[in-house]
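DM from R.C. (forwarded with permission)

"hey, sorry to bug you on a friday — could you get me a structure for this? deadline for the figure draft is monday and I only need the backbone to look sensible"
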Amino acid sequence: MTTYQADSIAGYIINYCKEKNYVINNLKLQKLLYYAQAKSLVEKSRPLFKENIEKWKLGPVVPEIYHLYKNYGAKNIQTAEERLEIIFNKNGEFTFKKIKLEIISAEDKQILNKVIDKFAIFNPFELVNRTHDHEIWKKDEKKILDGENHLQYTNKEIREFFTKNPEELV
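My reply, with the result:
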């Protein structure tokens, strides 16, 4: 049972959306990551990716992925970003090495495909509105709107919310 890096999951989502001709931008990507994490927590009792999801004004966000794709602004993401590792030699010189996205299991791809096929048809702001209706966002709404940062969803609250509200998932 693998728990992936969020950029591997994001890369898969972007590539799948491109293959299916779904429009994907950073805002929609954030919501798809949230729903994919929820689906894995409910069905597999494990997180799909390691990184935390935060409660932002426009709903759930994985900060590392937001920053990786923020240069697109509201435009469509064309390709998954590459991660680079800096390698230093004995002389203090460095080179960059591309880090490949992790290979996602067939079982996890099924989860992702179901989530993407269900939610990618919505425009990003429809997804924002849906996530704003979730009690796990609403309970912190005042703090969020007052500008408090780094409020995190816990995997436990995500799992409990979607277990009680299965109609919100696939």
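R.C.: lifesaver. The mean pLDDT is 93.
me: no worries. The beta strands are 54-56, 59-61, 83-88, 94-99.
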